[in-house]
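Fig. S4 source data, part A: sequence.
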Amino acid sequence: MISLRLSREARRDLQAIWNYTAQAWDEEQAEAYVRALHASMARLREFPELGPPHATRVAQLRKLASGHHLIFYLVEPEEIKVVRVLHERTDVTAQLGD
């Protein structure tokens, strides 16, 4: 099965999501929400083209909605690379360098 790799930025995004959720609600909610994001990412190993294309000038990303976040990823021959995990209201163009 294809492997899944998170970029440094995606790992930082997940930590920021956990921190925000823990502060706004509680740690239990933060754990559950981040677990759900990880479960969505894990599904990509089996269904790499699950998310629709999201073209940028740099790369042909795909995006997958999970909760109130969008998981941006690249499908490569040997792996799925998660590039960013951004809130649905984020200025995606600014964050991805479109």
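Fig. S4 source data, part B ends here. Residues 27-46 form the longest helix (20 residues).
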